[in-house]
Amino acid sequence: MILAHAFGQRYELPIPLLVFVLGGAAVVIVSFALIATRPVRQAATAYSDDLVVPRRTSNAVGLLATVVLATLVSCGLGGSQVVAENILPTVFWLIIWIAVPLSVGLLGDWTRAVNPFAFLGRIADQSALRRALLGSPQPVKWPGWLGWWPAVALFFTAACGELVFNLRVTVPANTALALTIYAALSMFAGFLFGPQWLERGEMFTVLYSTWGRLGFFRFGSPGPRGFAGGLAVPFQASASRISFVLLLLVSVNFDGLLSTPRWITFERSLPGALSAHPDRLEGFRVATFGLLALALALVFSVFAYTAARIGQQHSGFRQGLSGLLPSLLPIAFAYLLAHNIEYLIVNSQLLFPLLGNPAGVSWWPRLPLPFNDSYEVHPNLLPNGLYWYVSVVVIVVAHIIAVLLAHRHLGSRQSDPRAVRASEYPWLVVMVAYTMLSLWLLAQPLVTEHRATEPQAAQPAASATPAVGPSESR
């Protein structure tokens, strides 16, 4: 049986839901009380711009990564179209989309040398080719107004594929076609804009470098070594950069929202024109995703601006939010881990038989266990309670780090301890509220009975959510 996100089987909360949610809020408040009295050194230098500048990487490694990508795409196009029998959807939605972001959030952005899309963008950055086709060897200047919007649009599209259109995007041929189109786009944009494409537009470069701010090692990125060391350099105060970081947070929350029984009931109560037509229902979910992102951006902006004004900092909404945005990234990472830890451990076992027959074709030679279809996934490899307690510990630690980062930012801009303390209260309020909401979303599959008690049917392997609509699967 292939499991969905979070918890594969029903697991009762060891404490009442209200106590659990209020306990999480209390952790944030106590952390604030302990940290608020700590002095903060004044910022000695101006914050640098947040640019993602890849180091020089080995062409041999980049070429090898591209060969692996081409092999996976060929499996998707020419192999079995049964999701559980083809390696491409599992590798993309399990490894590239979830496992790699979690790994760079722990270690730092180690992916620059092995990102095939960045490699294709670099090799297409040819002055001679631009001179021949465009009449000038210089790359086209990246418009200032464009910012990180290409990366924002690409990430939003991919997240919608994972959360809304998973029935279609997890079909191997569709995943392969999407990756092929994106590889061609990366080459064209690399040819046209040069390194600026990697700095602002190439989704995986921006995604992994953003999560890598949390990792222990810098790998050439700015900031001191150590966990969350990269967050000493804040995100640029632009709408596009702020939007990208907030989408990392909102995508996990939206996935949790789709899992709640109340949302399932709400969708079933929609007018027949929506609930009876899958295409319209998918459009409704996409719109909800976008509106949720806008709502959270507005709420965080208002509280960040209020904190800046109370602290006598003369900054606008974007400046106030960008300064406090690093404090939200550990929280986003914690919920990403909590939401996917069991899914990763269980579904990663599928890689054994898939490596034995990557394309899922009948003529492939049969290999010994565990690289054949006789291998069985063990959904109860670890107790469900263990996943839960690990998730809670990660969430608590992330909120403590978030409080510390917010205190460090607000305190570095103000010399008056009373003004520092007063400026932290608005941000504390919104963090407590957000903590309670997120913990409630995380706990919903655990405290509500499923509609049916019969065992779940086997589901496809490769979707970051199962290859059925969220309302039917969770």
Return the average pLDDT rounded to an integer. Answer: 83
Major pleated sheet: none
N-to-C SSE series?
A: HHHHHHHHHHHHHHHHHHHH
Number of domains: 1
SS-derived structural category: mainly alpha
The gross shape turns out to be globular
| Helix content class | 55-70%
The count of strands amounts to 0
- Uncertain ranges: 1-9, 448-474
Give the amount of beta strand, in percent: under 5%
* Rg computed from alpha carbons, rounded to a whole number of angstroms: 23 Å
Query: What is the tally of helical segments?
Result: 20
Distance between the termini: 14 Å
Structural summary, described in words:
The protein is mainly α. The chain has one domain. 62% of the residues lie in helices and 0% in strands. It is built from 20 helices and no strands. It has helices spanning 17-35, 59-78, 87-107, 116-123, 127-134, 149-163, 166-169, 172-193, 195-200, 203-212, 239-259, 261-268, 272-275, 278-310, 317-324, 329-347, 351-356, 384-412, 417-447, 470-473. The longest helix has 33 residues, at 278-310. The radius of gyration is 23 Å and the shape is globular. Residues 1-9 and 448-474 have low confidence and may be disordered.
